[in-house]
Amino acid sequence: MKFAGLLVMPAGFFLTIAALILFPASHASARAAFVLCGLAVEALGLVVAVRGHMEAQGKSRS
Amino acid sequence: MTPNAQPALSEATFALALVLLLLAPLAIAGLALINTGLGRSRSAAQSLLGGLAIVAVAAIVFALIGATLTGTSNGASHIFHLSGKPWNWLGKGPFLLNGFATAPAQSQLEIMFEFLAVALAAIIPWGTGADRLRLTAGCAIAAILAAIVFPLLARWVWAGGWLSQLGLNFSLGSGFLDPAGAATIHVLGGLSALAVTWTAGPRRGKFPQGGFATAMPGHHAIYILFGCLLALSGWLAFNAAGAILWMHAPLSTIPVTAINTLLSASGAVAATFAVTRFRFGKPDASLCANGWLTGLVASSASAALVTPMQALVVGVVAGIMTPLLVEFLELAVSIDDPSGAISVHAAGGLWGLIAAGVFAPQPGQLVAQIVGIATLLGLILPLVYLLFLLLNRIIPFRVDPDGERIGMDLHELGGGAYPEFVIHRDDSYR
Description:
The complex is a heterodimer. By secondary structure, chain A is mainly α. Helices cover 85% and strands 0% of the residues of chain A.
């Protein structure tokens, strides 16, 4: 689960890059929204990775 | 592969930046003391020796490999074109610092700044691995950061790379702004700390089965608090030198940058003091130290860009979030971070970067800052974690259980930091 989350995070990064490439400067608000979506995908990936860590931690508590 | 044109430094500016950079190692000294104080007494010598070793390894590896990949803002670089825009992604500096002595003044100071920055970044995850991370593993982590990850980020953010060119190529304010290393030093260090704790796991007995997290307080409040004061001097130097080198700030703006640094730290420690006083009935010394550091970390991004009142706001927000985040990470997320590096450096750095975008007057600056943050979270964190996982296969991060029981000093160095004192038995090993 941790690895799934960590794989989602680069997808979010490529979304932000895609926003820069696809939207010209004249579409500033659409570009900003797309960039924020990329960041949201990364946040989602981080949450999944952290949840995966917590699950693994729960199993190996000493 | 076109070099970026940068204005030449005057002699006075060169002299001031050089003096500031000579003071910057105080930040490293402060952080090393804080890491030591927040660890246990039976690992104190290993912690401080590790700090020295990590600085040495980071400097050597950066000289051998990293400086070449980073290059300088005036030097050649590797560029690819995508959608008609240049993406400057890697430097092409001289091999083994060849010709460094005769390089332009700006380039010499840039490289010097980066040497100090990589040492500071590499020492951050060491505090998180306290009491269980082997000395060789700490040095190997420093080598990985100095050889691969830091040079990439330093290129992108400082030396004319694609993040710094977001303003020019995509009309996003002045491009990603990080004059004193909130991203390249602190967020990188903080995310590396997260990767270290994910890779090495918590200290034995920290999260007992079916119980709450065990409190393992730092062993020396004086080290921690004195380290904070030392760090202030280093941060003042880093922030002022960064503003001169990476933002070409005129000398008349440097006092404001210094005052903003102090105000940010002051606001942060006052806020943490109030929060811990409210939550626990008494202010908590180590959390207040973490709050102070978070204020300094946040100022790394914003001190050269904001007004004094805005710097105070940046500090207060940093100071409120630090104790809450430290508690959340330990109790809710089961992350064992003795030095609080993830809350202080990663979260504090991210907040500073956002604040720089929020308070900057240029349109599009906040989006540029968010693109930088997305790069750190979406690319650098997975990369660092992957590298650490591979490294852990070659050089195991974690000491064996017996070493953890007797303490890192005896296990790794053969002698303790306080030989004339009796170190009490640890109840968590019963």
